[in-house]
Amino acid sequence: MGLLSNKVALITGGGGGIGRGVARRFAREGACVVIAEIDVASGQQTASELEALGGKGLFVHTDILQKNSVLAAIDAAVSHFGGLDILVNNAFVPTPNVRLEDKTDDMLDQTLTSTIRASWWAMRAALPHMRQRGGGKIINFFSIDVDIGAWLHADYNTAKAGIVGLTRSAASEWGRFNITVNAIAPTAMGATFHKLAAENPGFAERSAAMRPLGRCGDPEEDIGPAVVFLASELSRYVTGETLHVDGGLHLPGYNSRPADVPVRE
What we know:
Blueprint: E1 8-12, H1 17-28, E2 32-37, H2 40-50, E3 56-61, H3 67-81, E4 86-89, H4 105-133, E5 136-141, H5 144-148, H6 154-174, E6 179-186, H7 191-199, H8 203-209, H9 219-231, E7 242-245
Parallel strand pairs: 1-2, 1-4, 2-3, 4-5, 5-6, 6-7
Protein name: SDR family oxidoreductase
Pfam families: adh_short_C2
Keywords: Oxidoreductase
């Protein structure tokens, strides 16, 4: 306990799923956590939970598709808690699951904005505040979907591949400020998982069986500790890395080809 005591963290999309799990884990380690979330109800609820866990919470209504909104969230963190030590770029805005040839320019633009641009904006806005604190921790979110070329996610795969480039570039350049920048590739029982499990009987069991560890991840108990590691002094000599936290799913990978798509068309 206390690995993040007196640290101020901002988590985009911290109101639900993996973001909420990370926020709760941060609070358990004593952090002050800004929940930068577009959904007011879930954002307020998560922020209110953190005090009981040993931390402090602040909800800031944030639309990651809007630069001014992202910058305002960073400003709110600094204004309310006095600084910023940790930035977790978790949120993104999904587009319809359609084949590459059916993805539109608008879908691509939305995905690039909610992943690469939103992370870019937040990181650059956080930089002067982290420098003022003598260093900082930035954790970006990658995805196994890039590794396997997941079907119906072409825009998402493209954007997440860019996140690795952004992560490595920032790690290389900002090490001189004592700022570490890493990426995490998690899979866990978030909102999408629960939706698929409800709509597809047996999905949860099949998903667990795909992983060498034989179970699906919990956002707070399985993903949260890995992000705490990257956000704490335990990882002070780790930067530019991409860490898979998926129960070993990246080893076998998975077949994402829709059943109704023939081998040749």
